[in-house]
TrEMBL record:
It comes from the Eukaryota. PROSITE patterns: SCD. This is STAG2 protein. InterPro entries: ARM-type_fold, Cohesin_Scc3/SA, HEAT_SCC3-SA, SCD. One of its GO terms (molecular function) is chromatin binding. One of its GO terms (cellular component) is chromatin. It comes from Aegotheles bennettii. Belongs to the SCC3 family.
């Protein structure tokens, strides 16, 4: 009897879906389209056994091309709710491979709010499976740390931090209390310098620091470590910094000190309405 009741309820839900949703998710009014996507996101999250499959996910994927920003935004927030739950990741693999390129392109959306949420969604995708995003996908997000719009840049900074800076070698557990050149932050500071130089935007260190300030404050304030990398002799087997790398580290260090002292974003970075990167 329980099974019969469950089947009856599912048949009713399918009837509502085909009779209402399938017609209204393409409604002429953007607000109705947005409501449809928001609701199907809730259905897939609450009753994943019935709704979290490609027969339903495809509607969210298609709607990511909607001409209205508010509708595209609902697609991304609905997907975030799904990717956040790691237990659901296996059911999202086909959708991810099919619509990943569209999500990556949305990081350059003309609407700031949409671009920010697209980056945040990719950060969740990254945490669910690092193999999904190619090096090119990641680089498309990396360069947004230099965006003139701070929310976009901060979201990209968190993505960059999760990808390049948050993984720790198990061997570091024994040296967590070491300081200066021998601290776990030493390699992370070098990684930051290498990234800065490879990005070829050397006059914009202040933008890079501001983008990562919220998620990597402890690293960016480890001036003792930065000083020791500049002043102390390299450890056995350690490659010394080149003159160019030392100059970059000094520039980054000065920007972190200025950020800590002034407590505001660099000149030229704001929260306007349209996306633009430098």
């Amino acid at each position: 009897q329980l099974q019969e009741n469950q089947d009856e309820i599912e048949n009713m839900m399918n009837a509502i879906f085909k009779g209402v949703f399938v017609h209204r998710y393409r409604d002429a009014i953007a607000e109705i389209r947005a409501i449809c996507i928001e609701e199907i996101g809730i259905w897939m999250k609450m009753y994943s056994d019935a709704f979290l499959n490609d027969s339903y996910l495809k509607y969210v994927g298609w709607t990511m091309h909607d001409k209205q920003g508010e509708v595209r935004l609902k697609c991304l927030t609905a997907l975030q709710g799904l990717y956040y739950n790691k237990e659901l990741n296996s059911k999202l693999e086909l959708f991810t491979s099919r619509f990943k390129d569209r999500i990556v392109s949305m990081t350059l959306d003309k609407e700031y709010d949409v671009a920010v949420q697209a980056i945040k969604l990719l950060t969740l995708v990254l945490q669910s499976s690092e193999e999904v995003l190619t090096a090119e996908d990641c680089e498309n997000v990396y360069h947004l740390v230099y965006s003139a719009h701070r929310p976009v840049a901060v979201a990209a900074g968190e993505f960059l931090y999760k990808k390049l800076f948050s993984r720790r070698d198990p061997e570091d557990d024994g040296i967590l209390k070491r300081r200066g050149r021998q601290s776990p932050n030493a390699n992370l500071v070098k990684t930051l310098v290498f990234f800065f130089l490879e990005s070829e935007l050397h006059e914009h260190a202040a933008y890079l620091v501001d983008s990562m300030w919220d998620c990597a404050t402890d690293l960016l304030k480890d001036w003792e470590c930065m000083n020791s990398l500049l002043l102390e002799e390299p450890l056995n087997g350690e490659e010394p910094l080149t003159d160019r790398q030392e100059s970059a580290l000094i520039e980054i260090m000065l920007c972190t000190i200025r950020q800590a002292a002034e407590c505001h974003p660099p000149v030229g970075r704001g929260t306007g309405k349209r996306v633009g990167s430098i």
